Amino acid sequence: MKHYAEIYKRELLEEVIPFWERHSPDTQYGGYFTCLTDKGEVYDTDKFLWLQARQVWMFSKLYQEVEPLVAWKRMAQLGADFLEKQGRDQEGNWYFSLNQKGEPLVQPYNIFSDCFAAMAFGALFQIHPEERYAEIAKCTFENILKRQENPKGKYNKAYTRTRELQNFALPMILCNLSLELEHILGEEQVEKVTGSVIELILNKFYQEESGLVLENISRNGQFIDTFEGRLLNPGHAIEAMWFIMNLGIRKKDNALVEKAEQIMYRQLENGWDEKHGGIFYFMDIKGYPPQQLEHQLKLWWVHLETLVALAKTYAYNQSPTAKMWFEKVHHYTWNHFRDKERGGEWYGYLDRQGEVSLKLKGGKWKGCFHVPRALLEVWKTLEKFG
Questions:
Q1: What is the pTM of this model?
Q2: Of 284, 297, 324, 350, which one has the fewest beta carbons inside 10 Å?
Q3: What is the Cα–Cα distance from 40 to 344, expressed in whole angstroms?
Q4: How many domains, in total, are found in the chain?
Q5: By the 8 A CB rule, do 109 and 150 touch?
Q6: How far is CA 41 from the centre of its chain?
């Protein structure tokens, strides 16, 4: 498996990161352009805060874990300065989007802007230890915990008293975000947060009888037989399992790692499209038609997070099953999402048959994150193997 490490390293450093370095910096107003065509042309100048923050995190990690290049630190700082100056309302909540100049466009309804802002400033603090960066990360994290029960707050359009749901995405992200911020939060708080989140994921969202992870459950942890309650998102569940594997390895809890591994395999087996290959975006646990019209699309992040989970599994136990699935998913992902003609960043959206659906490299939902993070994770995870 070691030869994969070199492949992923080369793709990260010679193709993907240079693409974002060339095309994304906004040298006039700060921050980054994320809406980029396959040629790297900017087709929209609005700035989505979770993508801005993810790119700050990415370049901070490259500086810390690959090489302390001045250019990478400057790139991280470009986004962080923009976020620090323009990103929050008066209550400290992070907007969803701004225009190019940094003027607010969409209110701070989306807690994931806050999650990735905390992650960004936590990573920046590690390479540029100014206390204000640690303070931004810590205050934002504390605000996230306060908003857990009602993440959208006053912007929540649901009539919650009839059918109050909790969504899988925030517990999933808290698994990883807590670890990312341990150098600021301390071990005790990380243990407290991750302990409750793991309990919620493995004992409420995970359904023992089917082996599948639900995307939504009732507030008291029950299955709800509706569109939302039956919804499966294989990519989310698989991503969460490598976060939990990291926590299990950190805690030296082999049983936790092995449980996460088995749950990961089940999501992958259930989500794999036997006819055309690739992993479905959304599914219904009872096999009914999902309400999402895009449910049969194949998305970049789903496959890349799966490769990370499989690489980590192989690194943990050298399982032949992990190797088999890694090679299968690797073959599909590299043959369908990678731009063989131009190189650079990868495509994000395929139809069910595996053809590129949108000729973009970045947009409102796709930025400098899942592709480079996965390439970095797989490279660093597998490089020690012969």
A1: 0.97
A2: 324
A3: 9
A4: 1
A5: no
A6: 24
